[in-house]
Design goal:
122 residues, single chain, mainly beta, globular
């Protein structure tokens, strides 16, 4: 059974930092893209960043470049999202996902975690 389990969310003041973790289990993700998405109340799910599990190549949404960093630890089957200089508009539920295509489209991702809440106060 495939599982993606996120952790690390919480409440932080504007300008602060958080590191999200996503532990993957249940199958081999060597040829998969691991993505982070977020969804704020009343809004569509938004692409944040992705990383190739095998090559480590990364891609970011424009608004996250320079503030967010995605990385992975193959030995721990874990993907991270380091978020710096957080803003109130970053408030959302953040989801980890796995998919076979290197895509920004959430529909291309087959496996999803349960999400972790990030709240940034002004």
């Amino acid at each position: 059974q495939v599982q993606l389990v996120e952790s690390g969310g919480g409440l932080v003041q504007a300008g602060g930092s958080l590191r999200l973790s996503c532990v993957a289990s249940g199958r081999t993700f060597n040829n998969y893209a691991m993505g982070w998405f977020r969804q704020a109340p009343g809004k569509e799910r938004q692409f944040v960043a992705r990383i190739s599990w095998s090559s480590g190549s990364t891609y970011y949404a424009d608004s996250m470049k320079g503030r967010f960093t995605i990385s992975r630890d193959n030995g721990k089957n874990t993907v991270y999202l380091q978020m710096n200089n957080l803003k109130p508009e970053d408030t959302a539920v953040y989801y980890c996902a796995a998919g076979r295509l290197q895509s920004v489209n959430p529909r291309e991702y087959s496996y999803w975690g349960q999400g972790t809440q990030v709240t940034v106060s002004s």
